[in-house]
Amino acid sequence: MTWLTKPNSALVIHISCAIFMISLIIFSEMKSPKQIQYETRNPSIVIEPPLEREKIQVRQRIHLSDRLSVTSLRYIIENVPHIKQYPELINGCEVTSVAMLLRFLGNPVSKLELAKRVKKDTTPLKVDATGRILSWGNPEKGFVGDITGKHLGYAVYHQPIVHLINEVYPKRAKNVTGLDFSTILQEVQNNRPVIVWTTSDFQPTKQWLEWKTADNRTIRVTFKQHAVLLVGFDVDSVYINDPMGKEGYKKVAKEPFIKSWEQLGKQAVTVF
Fold first, then answer.
1. Counting C-beta atoms within 10 Å of the first and last residue's C-beta, which end of the chain has fewer, N or C?
2. pTM over 0.70
């Protein structure tokens, strides 16, 4: 019975390999789920492995985080300088916001120089006997009225601001007007402060009036209009450099801010 006392060496090797593979399978099944990391778009995200039927939902949540829909997301652009529009430019919030943006980019131009260079709509102001404005300039064409505040002044909108930025920082202006606010926040997340048109109290307003422009167009405006530089956000708030504020990084409630921005035509400008 030689085969009992001297087993076939090939058979022993096969049996040993099978035992080894079974051991590996058992060990992998016993491995703690928390030791497994799933690949995501964001390498900092580690997700405990869900049940099979939940995996698609987890991937969807990861994708939404890339569109700034994750509740824990917070982003602040550091070292954005704060510049006050007062006392020289009582109506100069837009050009002062441009000055902050350009200084952050290492291309400083003073707010007073920008106030001189921004386009103006010099259409004269006409009022009725009660003081109601009948006709005036169009802020889409240029600054309306007196930017210094020595006389009545209104504002300037995104089109002349894009032109102004391109004058001093050629071909770098990026007009993101009309896009969703999530896109504006994405610009901030890309380390680009954004000039945003809102109201002076960052709330939606009911104080509106109308006047005719030089081309006989009726425009709807509010003297609560204001422009600021958006520099950060979190779940419930945005952080702004307010030209009328005493210092930068003012924290403002996000939802009313967005509503006021929508009232002003979703105007927003940044740079490439």
1. N
2. yes
